[in-house]
Task: inverse folding
């Protein structure tokens, strides 16, 4: 989801590892919410980009990921409404 990079990092001074970690984690969270399993690709990718990160930086990234993922999820739900969940996502 390239939109995650735009929402997270436009004008950001974060290093490439942080940008990739946050973007992929957010994409995973959004896809997971809507019932799309990306774990096969996402987990390894996130692990690679997060190695050697300090805990305080990971916590900060988690806050950023959660906030931005919620923005995307809420925007999708607002745009498509509850019908989207009932008709598109099996479950």
Result:
């Amino acid at each position: 989801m390239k939109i995650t990079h735009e929402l997270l990092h436009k004008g950001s001074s974060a290093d490439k590892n942080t940008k990739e970690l946050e973007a992929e984690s957010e994409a995973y969270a959004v896809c997971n919410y809507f019932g799309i399993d990306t774990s096969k690709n996402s987990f390894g990718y996130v692990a690679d980009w997060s190695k050697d990160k300090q805990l305080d930086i990971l916590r900060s990234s988690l806050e950023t990921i959660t906030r931005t993922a919620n923005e995307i999820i809420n925007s999708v739900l607002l745009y498509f409404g509850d019908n989207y969940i009932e008709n598109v996502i099996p479950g």
In short: The chain has five helices and no strands. The mean pLDDT is 81.
